[in-house]
Write a structure and sequence with these properties.
Elements: E1 6-7, H1 8-17, E2 21-25, E3 32-33, E4 35-37, E5 47-50, H2 58-67, E6 71-74, E7 85-88, H3 91-98, H4 123-132, H5 143-150, H6 164-177, E8 186-190, H7 193-206, E9 212-216, E10 229-232, H8 243-259, E11 264-269, H9 274-278, E12 284-290, E13 293-301
Parallel strand pairs: 4-5, 5-6, 6-7, 8-9, 10-11
Antiparallel strand pairs: 1-3, 2-7, 11-13, 12-13
């Protein structure tokens, strides 16, 4: 099954419906677009090329033309290159509309700096979102649409060192493991009302407000359902709170999880004493970074009898902050 290609005219109509297109002439509207790209290093014959960025150079467009681009989309004309131009008022919004995302899961977030001053009722934030955020549809599609998404092409498929059989194998695996009829529900909690309001606003924009729920709550009142999997990135005294406050929060979380056990808890933190504060040694740990901050992913779950728990953290952690050994309660 090959990927369905759409004619350039369909892209033009989409831009017109969103009042983004300013001017266009030249390229045949019936020609199929094989790729939408803003990277001159990733261009194939039939590409619709997007010119964007403050540091964009006309040489990039010329390179795209030489590789097979037949038209370009931009906020300004580049007369030095003989290619039809689709002139738009906002190239960022146009990119969000034309990006090669699957139809069964179309979620486009356009980030920008918003003039916003925090207030209790979040009216200013909501007004800023209404003015500056591009809302798109999120809906479940049929298996046919999933097949199209799985069958899409990747630039790496042209790499000689990646066997073609590997791509075919992984596509078949993805199709075999797809479960379109499985329900999902997520709950998020934060003590900051502004953070909760923003999360709910983002969920509504994404069209998943019926699946994702966010509420104001204190960790001291947290009681997970037995079948739940808990994911948390608690403050650890690096950018917010204090080291002492982070330790107190970890102790509170450990106490609540002991009183209300669940299917598993996964915590990302830079606190190398987390196991000691939490009151229980993790089943497994993984090193990772939060930006430039060295962290650990602590994994707690009901392990099989033959599986051994992770060894105690060394006195000196991989960031050099470990000072005391873990003491089992």
């Amino acid at each position: 099954m090959s990927l369905t290609l759409y004619p350039l005219g369909d892209y033009i109509q989409l831009l017109q419906r969103k009042n983004l297109q300013l001017e266009f002439s030249g390229a045949p509207l019936t020609r199929e677009v094989s790729l939408v790209s803003c990277d001159s290093r990733q261009v194939v014959p039939g590409t619709l090329f997007i010119c964007k960025g403050a540091h964009f150079k006309v040489e990039f467009l010329q390179s795209a033309k030489e590789q097979g681009a037949f038209a370009y989309l931009s906020e300004k004309r580049y007369d030095q290159v003989d290619l039809p131009c689709i002139l738009v008022s906002d190239v960022r919004l146009a990119m969000a509309l034309l990006a090669d995302f699957p139809e069964y899961c179309t979620l486009v977030l356009v980030y920008d700096l918003l003039p916003y001053k925090r207030d209790g009722k979040m009216k200013k934030l909501c007004a800023a979102l209404d003015k500056s955020v591009c809302e798109v549809e999120f809906r479940q599609q049929e298996r046919a649409q999933l097949l199209r998404w799985v069958k899409r092409r990747f630039a790496a498929e042209r790499y000689s060192f990646v066997p073609a059989s590997l791509w075919a194998e992984q596509r078949q695996k993805a199709l075999a493991e797809s479960k379109l009829d499985v329900g999902f529900e997520a709950f998020g909690y934060d003590i900051d009302p502004a953070a909760v309001a923003l999360a709910n606003a983002n969920a509504k924009l994404a069209g998943v407000e019926k699946r994702c729920h966010f509420e104001v709550a204190d960790v001291a009142d947290f009681a997970a359902k037995p079948e739940a999997i808990v994911l948390t990135n608690p403050p650890y005294g690096e950018r917010m709170n204090t080291i002492e406050g982070a330790a107190k929060l970890a102790r509170t979380l450990g106490r609540q999880m002991a009183e209300h056990p669940c299917a598993g808890l996964y915590a990302i933190t830079a606190d190398m004493e987390f196991e000691s504060h939490y009151g229980k040694r993790a089943n497994k740990r993984r090193k990772m970074y939060n930006g430039m901050i060295p962290c650990q992913l602590y994994m707690y779950y009901e392990a099989p009898k033959f599986e051994h728990k992770a060894k105690p953290m060394p006195k000196q952690g991989f960031d050099g902050k470990r000072t005391v050994e873990f003491k089992k309660k």
